[in-house]
Amino acid sequence: QAYLSYSNIAALTRLAGKPGWDITKTLDNVKIWTHEEGAVLSLKVEMQVKVPSHVAFSLLSDFSLRQRWDKHFLTCELLQAVSEEEKIYHVTSGPTAGHQPRDFVVLVSQRQPCQPQEPYTVAVRSVTLRAMPPRPEFCRSEILCAGFQIHSNSSSSCTVCYFNLVTSGVKPYLAANLTGSSKSIEDTALECIKFLE
């Protein structure tokens, strides 16, 4: 478990630190970036939020609040509080065109910064839990690496960066977003900002 949580945080930190991000869209408070490496597409959504970083961190690290701003989350149930900083959730999301509803079992690891210039971190990855085997009504899906880094800008504002390492199966769905035919990513980002503020 200690290894899993360490690798969860490390994978997100590594993804965030990669060079070569391309900006694909800029709105008032939201920037969307992508990073392609072979078949792997990564997504970064940068949001400017008018709340202190510690407030954004406490709201984003509590996954049970996620449905209030992310319409892709239908349900989110806490399965196990491994520790104060590590929790395992079962998440379901609705069906998309031609696909049955999906579900995920995820480990959410949260870390406060050790140094003032470091970000708050909320890392997410799929795990296997014997108590929650795949169910026939859902397509069990996997999150390789996702999460938030929250950088403090001032005592009353912060930059929230959401990252997602996308597997090839989700690529067509995202491509529609990035070319502008669907606004799901930016709508979700704007909902997130509204919720945090």
Automatic annotation (TrEMBL):
SMART domains: START
InterPro entries, sorted: START-like_dom_sf, START_lipid-bd_dom, START_lipid_transfer
Cellular component terms (Gene Ontology): cytoplasm
Stretches assigned to the START domain: 18-163
PROSITE patterns: START
Domain of life: Eukaryota
MF term (GO), any: lipid binding
Protein name stated in the entry: ACO12 thioesterase
